[in-house]
């Protein structure tokens, strides 16, 4: 049995992703939105998807609310990516957080974007206990973003 958590986007989510991506590519960031570019792990082709870049305690993070998505798998293999808003490009290297490091980041992510991503958290919100956030942590990959100069 496969215990890897992945939620396939619905049609409404796909439309929202395309809209956010279209705006972000044109330089309009919606509450921290970026377009993530990462090489496909099989094709080597550059893939893109909209993401929310979270700044928390002076560090930046990418959270995967739908779980083990293609961008998560690709980023693990590629070991680098780009975040873009309009013409501004930030190259970065990712460091994946272990589950015990995730509760505070998940809490802040939910505080900021629950209205957008709450459907992927099964009723868990920013007021959840650290214990509850630690319990759900394995289903939510999180990467610390380190900008490459």
From TrEMBL:
This is Nitroreductase family deazaflavin-dependent oxidoreductase. Gene3D superfamilies: Electron Transport, Fmn-binding Protein, Chain A. InterPro entries: F420H2_quin_Rdtase (IPR004378), Split_barrel_FMN-bd (IPR012349). It comes from Amycolatopsis pithecellobii. One of its GO terms (molecular function) is oxidoreductase activity.
């Amino acid at each position: 049995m496969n215990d890897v958590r992945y939620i396939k986007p619905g049609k409404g989510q796909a439309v929202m992703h395309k809209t956010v991506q279209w705006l972000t590519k044109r330089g309009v960031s919606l509450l921290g939105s970026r377009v993530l570019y990462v090489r496909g792990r099989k094709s080597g082709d550059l893939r893109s998807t909209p993401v929310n870049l979270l700044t928390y305690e002076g560090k930046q993070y990418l959270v995967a609310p739908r779980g083990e998505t293609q961008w998560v798998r690709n980023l693990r293999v590629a070991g680098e990516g780009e975040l873009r808003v309009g013409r501004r490009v930030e190259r970065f290297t990712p460091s994946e957080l272990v589950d015990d490091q995730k509760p505070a980041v998940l809490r802040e992510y939910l505080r900021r974007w629950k209205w957008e991503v709450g459907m992927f958290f099964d009723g868990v919100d920013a007021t959840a206990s650290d214990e509850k956030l630690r319990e759900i942590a394995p289903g939510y990959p999180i990467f610390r973003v380190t900008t490459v100069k």
